Amino acid sequence: MTPTAKILVIDDDTAITELMSMLLKTFGFEVLTTNIGEEGIRLAREANPNVILLDLMMPDLDGWQVCKAIRQTSTVPILILSAINDPRMVASVLDVGADDFLVKPVPSGVLVANIKKLIRRNTGALDVSKLKKTTPFIQTNNQPLLS
Fold first, then answer.
1. For labelling, which of 7, 10, 13, 69 has a CA lying 20 to 30 Å from the CA of 99?
2. pLDDT per residue over 61-115, tens digit each?
């Protein structure tokens, strides 16, 4: 049996890191958090997380700088979580090495599903027995899911 997946959350907003930690722990993840970009780079190197959740707009080092620095030493999946919904910004951070981008606020089920997807892609496996299931989506009418 594989160990619990480890998630590193890097966001300058302490309320966000605390909320993310509580949320992800309820799904069975081990969670590390930091509110400082430089410390996030160090933790990415030393703690060997399975996925990194990274904010773009931070005061010391921004998400682009943190992502570039992590990419110099690691191929860990990086999921950007940002309130910025500008296609040029999304493209620029994906170009420097991020693996995916979600716009805040993100429903918890969508976030957890994306984290699991990145872990599967990176390791080829995910021990789902150690993680709680997300609530399944149930369509209650005949409307298409995407219109």
1. 13
2. 999 999 999 999 999 999 999 999 999 999 999 999 999 999 999 999 999 999 9
Question: What phi and psi values does residue 19 have, to the nearest 5 degrees?
Answer: -65, -45
Q: What is the pTM of this model?
A: 0.83
Residue 70 vs residues 44, 47, 92, 136: alpha-carbon distances, Å: 7, 12, 16, 34
CA dihedral 28, 19, 94, 71 (to 10 degrees): -70
Kindly list the strands in the beta sheet with 100-103, ordered across the sheet, starting from the edge strand earlier in the chain: 30-34, 6-10, 51-54, 78-82, 100-103
